[in-house]
Amino acid sequence: MKNNVNKLLGLTLAGVLCFSCLVGCGDKTTTEPNNDNNQQEQETGNLPEDQTATIVNCGFVDVKPTLDGIENEEVWANMEYTQIELESSKFIDVKSYYDNDNVYFLFNWISEMTNEPTDSTAGHWYTKEDGTWTWDSTMDTFSIAWDLCDLPDFAETGCTPLCHDASNVLNNRYMGTEITGDIIELWVWSPAVSGMKGIMASYLWTNVESDIDIDAENFDNKITWEKLPGEYGFVYNRAEDANEPAEGGENAPLYIVNDKQPSGDAALVSAVGLFEFGGYILEIARPRNPSALDLTHFEVSDDGYADFLFAPNYHTLGQRDDHFTPDTASTLRMVGKTITD
User: Fold this and answer.
1) pLDDT digit string (tens) for 77-93?
2) What's the whole-model pTM score?
3) For residue 327, what pLDDT is reported?
4) For residues 334 and 99, what is the distance between their CA atoms, to the nearest angstrom?
5) How many Å apart are CA 205 and CA 285, to the nearest integer?
6) Separation between Cα atoms, residue 54 and residue 32, nearest integer Å
């Protein structure tokens, strides 16, 4: 994909990453401290062995960028993009670095949309001729999954191409693994929801409980999204017993943005994204060492390396059968401050 440098202005939506059929960590719970937290490879002096084909180098730069979705700062200009290949010959470009406090990302991708999104495309619920509810929107979505517990198949599968059992059927969208103890840290960016609050909403993505029927008529595909402590600034407006909004009637949104300020672990990831000329740029900042043990800690020694496995994805909302997901995971390789090569 050609770099979408300096292209974006508008709103974007971030999305829903899908996972299934991973062999898990096994018999862990999300309440137990996980001190390994996505730090599978910690090496001093020598490069770690590559776990994936795509390596995104992340070095130290003592600069804090302005998160505005515009790639006009020297810190970004001095870096080359790394290209992440998705299925269907799609791509996401990424740059990354860190300072003493945060790790930063610049994601860039070409949209499948034919029209520039506006506020009016934030989406709404409507009923189809057969009486079922669906969500109408034309914005892209974007999300990132981070392997929190060294899932054995994560490097080889990332976000699996399956993504959903039946992606074109709203009430049968399945996400999550079936192995007790599987934990993924999930960042979700939505221009009409989390983007309105300047964050990527953070969740722990856990396994589907054995007593849950994923084929049930009103199965909620977000049942495996465990909320983090704090305030998101929006609420999920879905009835517990039906595929329709809990409040607001036929034109009610899937999410209701409230007047509360995001806070706590729910709002750890700051993000601003813009759309222009057929593509998106999304700038992200995330604290390296959150207080919660069960979240990713982006730690690296001054003279070493640390690898973190992740899988990004995007799709144009309203075209759920066209998720663009990686066939394999990618590696964020943090490089110590004193390493110059």
Assistant:
1) 999 999 999 877 889 99
2) 0.83
3) 78
4) 11
5) 20
6) 31
Mean pLDDT of 12-35: 36
For residue 115, what are the contacts with CB-CB under 8 A and spacing of at least 6? Answer: 138
Which pLDDT score, from 0 to 100, does residue 162 have? 33
The encoded tokens of residue 116 equal: 């520039």
Give me the amino acid identity at 116. E
Annotated domain spans of the chain? 41-115+137-225+273-335
- Token pair 């396994």 is found at 207
Architecture, CATH, for domain 41-115+137-225+273-335: Sandwich (2.60)
- Bridge partners, residue 280, by sequence: 109, 275
Q: Are strands 199-205 and 82-85 parallel, antiparallel or unpaired?
A: unpaired
Question: Three-state SS across the chain?
Answer: CCCCCCCCCCCCCCCCCCCCCCCCCCCCCCCCCCCCCCCCEEEECCCCCCCCCCEEEEEECCCCCCCCCCCCCHHHHCCCCEEEECHHHCEEEEEEEECCCEEEEEEEEECCCCCCCCHHHCCEEEECCCCCEEEECCCEEEEEEEECCCCCCHHHHCCCCCCCCCCCCHHHCCCCCCCCCCCEEEEEECCCCHHHHCEEEEEEECCCCCCCCCCCCCCCCCCCEEECCEECCEEECCCCCCCCCCCCCCCCCCEEECCCCCEEHHHCEEEEEEEECCEEEEEEEEECCCCCCCCCCCCCCCCEEEEEEEEEEEEECCCHHHCECCCCCEEEEEECCCCCC
Per-residue pLDDT of 106-121, as tens digits, reads 999 998 776 677 655 5
Tell me the C-alpha distance between 55 and 177, whole Å: 25
- pLDDT tens digits, residue range 220-263? 778 888 999 999 999 988 888 887 888 887 778 888 899 999 99
DSSP 227: E
Q: How far apart are CA 245 and CA 248, in angstroms?
A: 7
DSSP H helices, 190-231, are none
Nearest CA-CA partner of 93 in 298, 314, 305, 306: 314
Return d(Cα 202, Cα 184) in angstroms, integer.
11
